[in-house]
Amino acid sequence: xxxxxxxxxxxxxxxxxxxxxxxxxxxxxxxxxxxxxxxxxxxxxxxxxxxxxxxxxxxxxxxxxxxxxxxxxxxxxxxxxxxxxxxxxxxxxxxxxxxxxxxxxxxxxxxxxxxxxxxxxxxxxxxxxxxxxxxxxxxxxxxxxxxxxxxxxxxxxxxxxxxxxxxxxxxxxxxxxxxxxxxxxxxxxxxxxxxxxxxxxxxxxxxxxxxxxxxxxxxxxxxxxxxxxxxxxxxxxxxxxxxxxxxxxxxxxxxxxxxxxxxxxxxxxxxxxxxxxxxxxxxxxxxxxxxxxxxxxxxxxxxxxxxxxxxxxxxxxxxxxxxxxxxxxxxxxxxxxxxxx
Length: 341
Prior knowledge:
The protein is built from 12 helices and 8 strands. It has helices spanning 10-17, 23-35, 39-55, 67-80, 88-110, 120-125, 143-146, 151-159, 164-167, 220-225, 227-238, 243-255; strands at residues 171-176, 179-184, 191-195, 214-218, 267-270, 287-293, 310-311, 322-328. It folds into 2 domains: 10-135, no CATH class; 143-328, no CATH class. The chain has an 8-stranded mixed β-sheet with strand order 2-1-3-4-5-6-8-7, with helices on both faces. The chain is of the alpha+beta class.
């Protein structure tokens, strides 16, 4: 990664995955990961390394690491240029994690076990081609992969987007073969559902990722003016339209007022700890989203230093004349404390 090509450096990405970035930097990192074709791969690899290390149990220090291995690890890390870090604290964290990852891999080889820890730099150093993120999900998978076979599970996941005081009386939609269907009628004007990957930006490398599950609860204003776009995109996907055809259709529908612009007060809850936003960030952090007709982000102070407000990339550069702001909150929908970001 390079400062001239990416909004975040590798050490900041690691801090983001560990929940150690301030809120403004964390939301900036999420926005970059949503649009960058390369960084999600690295983020997924770093998350895999972290999970492998957490799951690994070292029974005792008796195996030890010889001075030769220590020296080799140091030379290897230095050669790969992992530690391009200006902050001593971040440098210590990055170095220690990569040293442990390398040490564990060597120990596993020594005892005949296999622990796969891959990264772009490892592949390049070994003469292997780096993974091209743009080919991870090049086209739509079979519809079965996007559907949730258990209806009750999807209902529960949709409701997890907002506190029970809101979602328990909300209308619930579930995805069927032909589009979203009403599973439960609501009483408070809110509509909850689980969005799929095609609500991402059209430029997203995970636009066709069948693992994406995004619980969201729209308030009444958003249910009237934002939800129709989700339903429209879904129906176009299920009828087999290409991205280019979808973009043309959406532009025409807004031009001819077939799709509404955001109503005043349109917002939604995304506070579920069980969703999967994308492969790089998992379920992200609990947050609220606010929708407006196209407006300058400075009107909300979005993306400014120490501001909790971020311009969401969902509609940036897309055919929809919508501006969407994100504000992280401190608790999940079940009331438990969320990681500090």
